[in-house]
C-alpha cells in the first residue's frame, strides 16, 4: 500500500529553476489614472488555444442506477492535503480544450464519453494568478454489466477515482471536508448549485 504523501521541505524557488510558473510584476493605470503595481503568478505552459487547463464535470447515465458523476482525490503539495476535485489537466500546446477534456477524463478516470458542453474561458484566481480554464461537461452512457474501466495514469500520478450519485454529491463533499480533505472551489460551487437548485428553489 502506498505511504501517505508529505512535505519534506519548503524553500524559495529561484526564477531560473521554475519549470511551470513565473512571477510577473504588472504595472497598470487605475480608473483615476494612478499608476499601480500588481504581483501575479503566470503559467509558462499556455499553448495555441490561449487556455491553460480544463476541468471535467461528468454525468454518468446507467439503465438501473441514478445519474452519477466522477470526482478524484489526490494529494496536492500547495494545500498539504488530499484534495477532492473534478478530473482536470493542462491543455497541451497544440490541443483544443475540448480534446483535452476527453483525454484528461480518460487518463484520470478510465471513462470515455461525449462532450456535451464546454464553458467560455473563465479565470481561476484573478487576484493572484493569470491562470484560466474551461469547464467541460461530458456524458458517459453505460450498459448493464459494463466493467469499471482502468485508469491511464502517468508515472508519479496517484489519483483515486470516486463515482458518486449526483443527489449525494453535496453531502459527500461535506463529509470529505470534515475528514480533513480540501474540496476544490470549482467542484464545491458546482455541487452547491445542484444542491441549492434541488432544495431552495
UniProtKB/TrEMBL annotation:
Annotated GO CC locations: nucleus
Keyword terms: Hydrolase
Pfam families documented for this protein: NUDIX
SUPFAM superfamilies (UniProt xref): Nudix
CDD domains: NUDIX_ADPRase_Nudt5
Domain Nudix hydrolase: start-end pairs: 51-187
Source superkingdom: Eukaryota
GO molecular function: ADP-ribose diphosphatase activity
InterPro entries listed in its UniProt record: NUDIX_hydrolase-like_dom_sf, NUDIX_hydrolase_dom
Any Gene Ontology biological process: nucleoside phosphate metabolic process
Protein name per the record: Nudix hydrolase domain-containing protein
Annotated organism of origin: Lentithecium fluviatile CBS 122367
